[in-house]
Design goal:
Elements lengths: L7 H4 L1 H19 L4 H20 L1 H11 L5 H27 L7 H29 L2
Helix pairs in contact: 2-3, 2-6, 3-5, 5-6
Length: 137
């Protein structure tokens, strides 16, 4: 919390943008290998910002339960679980990218991309759940 304003809504947009962009960079890296370092850097920064956003969620949870009457504890827990699933998926994607980083073989890069696609879907659903809590009538 920053004063009475939760940090979570301010922080969540960085990992969304960075992790989705990292997924695109992984796809581009399948064609042009010189993009692998850019994808790696974007994925690492996206994960770090994702952890910060995830950890800031507790303050937002307190704020939502106190100020948003339509938000249930179950909805918050669901959003929190899918956020964690997203981070785990992108962490696995990073692991595959690191395992194959020095290799010119594309197997680990392809695995990293496939897991990042799954992570992107989970991330989109997490954002959808968060948006429902804030904007649902």
């Amino acid at each position: 919390m920053l004063g009475n304003v939760p940090l979570h809504p301010l922080l969540v947009h960085a990992p969304i943008a960075l992790l989705l962009f990292a997924t695109i960079l992984l796809l581009v890296s399948l064609k042009w290998m010189q993009f692998k370092l850019f994808a790696l850097f974007t994925l690492v920064v996206g994960l770090i910002s994702g952890v910060a956003a995830y950890l800031s969620g507790d303050g937002a949870e307190e704020y939502a339960e106190a100020n948003l009457s339509s938000v249930t504890h179950a909805a918050i827990e669901n959003h929190e679980h899918f956020a964690l699933f997203s981070l785990v998926a992108f962490g696995v994607s990073l692991l595959f990218l690191l395992l194959g980083y020095r290799s010119n073989k594309k197997m680990f890069l392809l695995l990293s991309f496939v897991v990042a696609i799954v992570g992107s879907g989970l991330l989109a659903y997490t954002g959808h759940l968060g948006g429902q809590m804030v904007y649902a009538k």
